Structure formats: C-alpha cells, structure tokens
Amino acid sequence: MYPALAVADSLRAIGNIDIHLVGTKTGLERKLFEESGLPGHYLMARPLPARKGPRWAANCLSIGGALVQAVLLLRRLRPRVVAGTGGYASVCVIRAAQLLGVPTLVHEMDAHAGRANRAVVRRATKVTVGFSSAASELGRPDAVVTGNPLRPQFHSPDPAGAAERYGLEAGRRTVLVLGGSRGAVALTEAAVGAAPDVSAAGAQLVVIAGRGNMEQAERWAKELPTEARAQLHLVEYVSEGIADLFAAADLAVCRAGAATVFELAATGLPAILIPYPYATGDHQRRNAQALAEAGAALLVDQAEVVGPGLLGGLLRGLLNEENRLRRMSAAARAWARPDAAAEIARLVFELASPGTASEE
C-alpha cells in the first residue's frame, strides 16, 4: 500500500481532489489508511493459492463477493478514475471499474508482472510499470515506464537522526542488513556471523532482525567477540525511520522487493541483493538483476551467504574497495526514478479530467 499512498500524496499536492483508498480487512491497510487521514474501504477478497483445492475454491468465492462489493462501492462513490498498484483487492476494484466504464490505471511494480495485474491489464485505460521489462510481459507496449513510487520520507531522509536514534558512531562506515517487517532468519544469522569481519574493516553493523526474531538474534550475538559485539546494533523493526537508516548507511544487504530496489536507488545506497528464493515467478531475482546490470548492486544467491564466513568475507572485501562503492552509489542515483509518484499522479489526474469519466 505504500506506493498507493505515495501516489495519493502526489494527487493531493495537485489540488483539492477527493481520494478514497480500498484494501482488505486482513492486511496492513487499516492502520495505514487511518494514518493517512483518507477514507478507507475494505473488501472481503482473499489471495488465490497457487494450487487448486478447497482453499482455492473458497477464496474464489471471496473474490466474487469482493467484486460485488466493489461494484456497489463505485456506484456509490462515482469516481472519475480508479488506479491500482497490484494485489487481489486491487483486481476487484479495477475489474468493477472496467465493468462500469470508469477509466482505470494499472501500475505494475515488479520486473516480472504479477498474476493480479495480468488479470486486468488488457482492458486498462493506462498502464504504468516500475521496470521496462514488465511492459512486454503484460502485452502493453504502450505502458509508461515511471519507476516505483517512493514513500515521502525517502525524499528528505535524516541520516543524523538515524545515527542518534540507534547509537551509531559518527564517522564510522555503516552496513545495514534487513529482511522486511518479519525479517529473514537466514539473512539475520548470516549478518550476525559477519559482525567480526565488518568490525575488522572498521565499520559498524545494523541488523533489522524482524518481528519475533530478536531473541534468537541476541543469542547469536552473545557468542561474538567483544569488539565485534560492540559494533553490532540489533533492531527488531523499523517503519517510519527506514529512509533515515538508508541514508546513514554505506552498504546494504537485503531482499529485492520492488519498492526496496527503488528506495536503495533513491538514496544512492550500494547493495548486496539476495532475492527471496521462493518468490512467485522468481520476481525478486528479476528486480535485483535490473539494479545489478546498472552497476549499483551485487546479485547473490542466498546459498552463497548462509555458510560460516561467507557473508563476512563478501562484506569485508567490498568495504575495502572505497572507489567501487562510490561508483555503485553513483550508478544507483543515475538509475533512480525519484519522481515516479508525481508522474503516476499526473497520469491519473489526466484520466480524471472532465470528459473522460463514465456517466455511470
């Protein structure tokens, strides 16, 4: 939902526009919608499992019900345009808009197009993509390559604030390791094990362990030498301050989600990207390849870093190559698309201009 909220913020900057958000009750949407101050609506849609079975059939029924909900919602709100950023709730709203003749914009965030957007993109009025490769996969050569919208905090991060918040030593290089809100146990274990190498290279290490993984991470940390432990900062989870940490870091180790890749680029942060090996369609690898081909990141398989000393050796080598890190940072900034949210908002606004909307 973060990209959708970023586009909503850009739309509000254009003028006095009535914006409504739609999601599901089971996701993170409710909290984010309430924080945004925008009206939120919730559908009963559930994701379809990869394999057919009782759960697949039950979730098909929920999506059918959500489609009816979406049609009734749009008839009540009478929007001039409906925009979706992917996901099963988005499919229902986009499809309902298409049934009612309301203009639609579909944004695909990943380099490998997801099932949700594939289901609705053919009849979309306008298509935007984060990665150029997605346009051909979707069968929409007319798609506009915008990049992915950034959360507002990435436009003005505060690295000094992050250093103070997490007790980082000023002037010491920083390596940031993160695996998402729930963390990634394999990455966390490898990162804690790499602390001696990071410390030996004169750097400090921040590891975002993820919710529920802190106790295990602290047990691993207790086994480290004293100097390495002193340079290790374990954090359970970061939401609002993540942009500040990105800006404070000199090197990142992380997964390759579509939003993360563009956030790294926006802050010019060199990265070791370790795609989640079980991602649908291996889309994280495709995302990582784009940044790696630009010279801004290294693409490394998880199996190459989970053994003793593997990640530590890789980090130590990179930290000793200052010129290479500078080149990677410059390449990241050159590849970045910091105005993606504003560009998508402009296209949405054009679709909503008088004379383009349905009379339904």
List keywords for this structure.
360 residues, alpha/beta, Rossmann fold, 4-stranded parallel beta sheet, 17 helices, 13% strand, elongated
Structure description:
Residues 356-360 have low confidence and may be disordered. This protein has helices spanning 2-14, 29-36, 54-77, 88-100, 115-120, 133-137, 159-165, 185-193, 195-200, 214-222, 226-230, 242-248, 258-266, 283-293, 310-319, 322-335, 340-351, and strands at 21-24, 40-43, 82-84, 104-108, 126-129, 144-145, 173-178, 203-208, 232-235, 251-254, 271-273, 297-299. The protein folds into 2 domains: 2-150 and 339-351, Rossmann fold (3-Layer(aba) Sandwich), CATH 3.40.50; 154-335, Glycogen Phosphorylase B (Rossmann fold, 3-Layer(aba) Sandwich), CATH 3.40.50. The chain has a 6-stranded parallel sheet with strand order 9-8-7-10-11-12, with helices on both faces. Strands 3-4-5-6 form a 4-stranded parallel sheet, with helices on both faces. The protein has a two-stranded parallel ribbon with strand order 1-2. By secondary structure, it is an alpha/beta fold. The protein contains 17 helices and 12 strands. The longest helix has 24 residues, at 54-77.
